[in-house]
């Protein structure tokens, strides 16, 4: 079987070489050469920019560290072949479907969901290790989401996942690895943290911390079709398979759609959101942060077969439940109701004994009494008395009998 596949590959290489020599490109008018990766970087970018303009596409091309690498060695050497994609699809088809029926919003972006970034930093893959990088990108993000810990930054080892703890040959960095193999490894054995098995040693398997703890996943699921993928994205990112075109390596920003006619292979990346208004998927790639929109890209709905196959994972992480803060209400002291005192009108008693009302004169002894004035009349006389209240006076009337003297003892109450 391997010999047959090898002969098919050699025949394909020879055939493409003949066609390039005789025609210079495989694409038709208005498209970029399907062999743009063999050109110089400057020529490739120029051709792509012209093709974008001719196809009225909504993205821009530019150079990055990865595009220069792809132009140097050929993008097709860094991605999955058709045969590998078929194996990946077969692997995905054996997974249970995502069955949850949930309402789909108009947009989701796990880079900024409810004010938090639930993604981990963009990484730089080694050769054909996109399956490991995309799968662990989703695993790391889902762990943050399931644990409700947006500030947490899990970082797992793609080298450990690719080589399945050293069980696989280093050739998988060239041939790629199928989703089922990685997912079964993550479920049964778990993955080491990046610090314990750094990617810098790839393709050699090397564990630098034998005491490190492995982290497992619970299970996986598949989501096929636009609606199913959008529903799955309501709970977290998913891994997506796409057809990859030469010009994708030079993507800089905008909404990507192919401008050449033939894909050079397949690629796995993490789908982290979508936008119904703009009609695109938001994806996290593993080609470094200098590529695309800080390591991310937007891919137009219905292109690159992005909606054909995707898969997600269930983690063993449970939400960190913070005990509710018990707020003890303050003791509210009812206000003191000040009852105004009952004002009892004062009783003022004036007692005068032996008051002599004399028509013609007032005895000297009256000078110490509250008597202020005496007015004499024919029928009666009046006496005005001062009280203990300012500006309050009492006036009393007395009978007068000619010039005779009256002796009267009187109690005045007010």
The level of helicity is 10-25%
Strand content: 15-25%
Q: What characteristic shape results from the CA principal axes? A: elongated
- Low-pLDDT segments, ≥5 res: 1-31, 35-40, 345-369, 400-414
Distance between the termini: 130 Å
The biggest beta sheet reads: 9 strands, mixed
What is the average per-residue confidence, as pLDDT, rounded to a whole number? 78
Individual helix count:
9
Series of secondary-structure elements, N-terminal to C-terminal: HHEHHEHHHHEHEEEEEEEEEEE
How many β-strand runs?
14
Please give the radius of gyration in angstroms: 48 Å
Backbone structural class: alpha+beta
Which SSEs are present, and which pair or pack?
Layout: H1 2-23, H2 41-54, E1 58-61, H3 65-73, H4 82-93, E2 107-109, H5 130-147, H6 158-162, H7 172-175, H8 179-188, E3 217-223, H9 226-233, E4 238-244, E5 251-256, E6 265-275, E7 280-284, E8 296-300, E9 310-315, E10 349-357, E11 371-375, E12 380-386, E13 393-399, E14 406-413
Parallel strand pairs: 5-8
Antiparallel strand pairs: 1-5, 2-6, 3-9, 4-6, 4-9, 6-7, 7-8, 10-14, 11-12, 12-13
Report a brief summary of the structure:
With 414 residues, the chain is of the alpha+beta class. Helix content is 25%, strand content 22%. The chain has nine helices and 14 strands.
Structural overview:
The protein is of the alpha+beta class and 414 residues long. The chain contains nine helices and 14 strands. Strands 1, 2, 3, 4, 5, 6, 7, 8 and 9 form a nine-stranded mixed beta sheet that branches. Strands 11-12-13 form a three-stranded antiparallel beta sheet, with no helix packed on it. A hairpin with a 4-residue loop joins strand 6 and strand 7. Mean pLDDT is 78; it is low at 1-31, 35-40, 345-369 and 400-414.
């Amino acid at each position: 079987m391997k010999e047959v596949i090898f002969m098919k590959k050699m025949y394909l290489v020879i055939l493409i070489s003949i066609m390039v020599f005789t025609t210079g490109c495989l694409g038709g008018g208005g498209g970029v050469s399907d062999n743009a990766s063999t050109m110089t970087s400057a020529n490739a970018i120029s051709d792509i920019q012209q093709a974008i303009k001719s196809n009225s596409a909504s993205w821009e091309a530019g150079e990055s560290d990865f595009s220069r690498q792809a132009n140097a060695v050929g993008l097709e050497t860094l991605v999955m072949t058709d045969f590998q994609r078929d194996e990946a699809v077969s692997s995905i088809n054996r997974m249970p479907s995502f069955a949850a029926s949930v309402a789909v919003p108009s947009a989701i972006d796990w880079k900024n969901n409810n004010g938090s970034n639930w993604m981990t930093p963009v990484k730089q893959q080694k050769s054909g290790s996109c399956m490991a990088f995309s799968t662990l990108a989703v695993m790391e993000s889902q762990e943050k989401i399931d644990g409700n810990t947006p500030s947490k930054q899990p970082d797992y080892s793609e080298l450990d996942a690719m080589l399945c703890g050293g069980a696989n040959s280093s050739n998988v960095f060239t041939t790629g690895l199928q989703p089922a193999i990685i997912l079964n490894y993550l479920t049964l054995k778990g993955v080491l943290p990046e610090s314990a098995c750094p990617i810098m040693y790839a393709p050699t398997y090397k564990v630098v911390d034998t005491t490190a703890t492995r982290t497992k996943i619970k299970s996986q699921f598949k989501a096929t079709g636009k609606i199913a993928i959008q529903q799955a994205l309501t709970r977290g990112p998913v891994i997506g398979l796409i057809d990859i075109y030469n010009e994708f390596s030079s993507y800089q920003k905008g909404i990507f759609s192919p401008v050449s006619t033939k894909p050079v292979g397949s690629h796995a990346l993490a789908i982290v959101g979508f936008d119904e208004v703009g009609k695109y998927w938001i994806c996290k790639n593993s080609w470094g942060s200098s590529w695309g929109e800080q390591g991310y890209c937007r891919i137009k709905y219905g292109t690159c077969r992005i909606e054909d196959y995707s898969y997600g994972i269930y983690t063993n992480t449970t939400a960190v439940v913070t005990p509710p803060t018990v707020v003890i209400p303050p003791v509210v002291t009812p206000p003191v109701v000040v009852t105004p005192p009952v004002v009892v009108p004062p009783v003022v008693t004036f007692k005068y004994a032996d008051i002599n009302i004399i028509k013609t004169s007032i005895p000297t002894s009256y000078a110490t009494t509250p008597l202020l004035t005496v007015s004499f009349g024919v029928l009666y006389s009046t006496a005005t008395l001062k009280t203990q209240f300012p500006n309050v006076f009492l006036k009393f009337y007395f009978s007068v009998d000619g010039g005779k003297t009256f002796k009267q003892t009187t109690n005045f109450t007010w």
